[in-house]
């Protein structure tokens, strides 16, 4: 379980940046489509 040295609990912290990037890309696409 501790082979990677990171407990399985902070997985949410690793997912939040990914969700933020997806949201940012979605906003950029929305702005581009409105132009």
User: Which structural class should the secondary elements be placed in?
Assistant: mainly alpha
Q: Between the first and last Cα atoms, what is the distance in angstroms?
A: 50 Å
The tally of domains stands at 1
Return the average pLDDT rounded to an integer.
80
Provide the β-strand percentage band. Answer: under 5%
Rg estimate, integer Å: 16 Å
Profile the largest sheet.
none
Percent of residues in helices: 55-70%
Number of helices: 1
Order of helices and strands: H
Number of strands: 0
Summarize the structure.
With 35 residues, this protein is mainly alpha-helical. The chain has one helix spanning 11-34. 0% of the residues are buried.
Fold blueprint:
Layout: H1 11-34
Explain the overall architecture.
69% of the residues lie in helices and 0% in strands. The chain is rod-shaped and about 50 Å long. It has one helix and no strands. It has one domain (11-35). By secondary structure, it is mostly helical.
């Amino acid at each position: 379980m501790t082979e990677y040295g990171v407990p399985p609990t902070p997985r949410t912290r690793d997912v939040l940046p990914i969700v933020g990037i997806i949201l940012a890309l979605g906003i950029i696409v929305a702005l581009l489509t409105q132009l």
